[in-house]
Amino acid sequence: MIRIDNLKKAFNGFQAVDGITFNVSPGEVLGFLGPNGAGKSTTMKMLTGFITPDSGSVSLCGFDVSNDPVAAKSLVGYLPEGAPAYGDMTPLNFLSFIADIRGLLGKHKTSRIDEVIHLLELQSVCNRPIDTLSKGFKRRVGIAQAILHDPQILILDEPTDGLDPNQKYQVRELIRGLAKEKIVIISTHILEEVTVVCTRAIVIARGRVLADATPSELEARS
Ligand code: ADP
Ligand code: ADP
């Protein structure tokens, strides 16, 4: 369960997030939809503890993110927008590096990396530099990194942006599978992303919630 209560964040006097409140329950795939500059990334970064809110609170599975940032980091997996950093590493090296940061050790580390490589079907590319892979593979490496520590909450920033239709389909199928056991939040400016994969949508603009609806309700309005 995620509880977000009256979150606010300003940058140099500009109110990027202006009082956002919502809850997300297990089983939901929440689309966080809004135009560029709406405050999506800032909100998501407050969920992961990456940015500290000016006021309001975020509670993840009963842990308050401000009081317990370590718990928050272990509960959340995050896919940043775009290609993974460290493009000169191979997926195998990159996942090993992330596993070290996450504190996965010994046999457990090796078996979990193996499991994630199979799940994301990265076997054929796991020894090639990430920079040399297709966008679809790069995105799958990003998702592999996000789920490596088996978080209960998965936050995906523009997960299919820039992918061709086939790669989009594959990533969306993957998200559907992951959503069976995790709360998934997809941050996006694309309505289709929400109507195709999400069970619920929150629309934000100028740092405020404009609508909280099912994807079909949103489609009917647009
Ligand atoms: P979105 O993800 O919806 O595109 P963001 O949360 O990235 O929106 O940004 C919301 C607003 O806050 C934008 O106007 C952006 O320029 C501003 N902003 C975001 N991060 C910073 C920052 N670190 N410093 C100053 N302004 C920022
Ligand atoms: P950079 O040096 O460009 O910040 P990072 O790898 O630290 O490179 O981050 C890449 C992007 O992902 C940045 O925009 C950063 O704000 C975001 N990011 C990284 N880790 C997190 C996190 N735990 N929560 C939210 N955003 C994150």
Automatic annotation (TrEMBL):
Record keywords: ATP-binding, Nucleotide-binding, Transport
Assigned protein family: Belongs to the ABC transporter superfamily.
Domain ABC transporter: 2-222
Protein name from the UniProt record: ABC transporter ATP-binding protein
Molecular-function annotations in GO: ATP binding
Keyword Nucleotide-binding recorded: yes
Signal peptide start-end: none
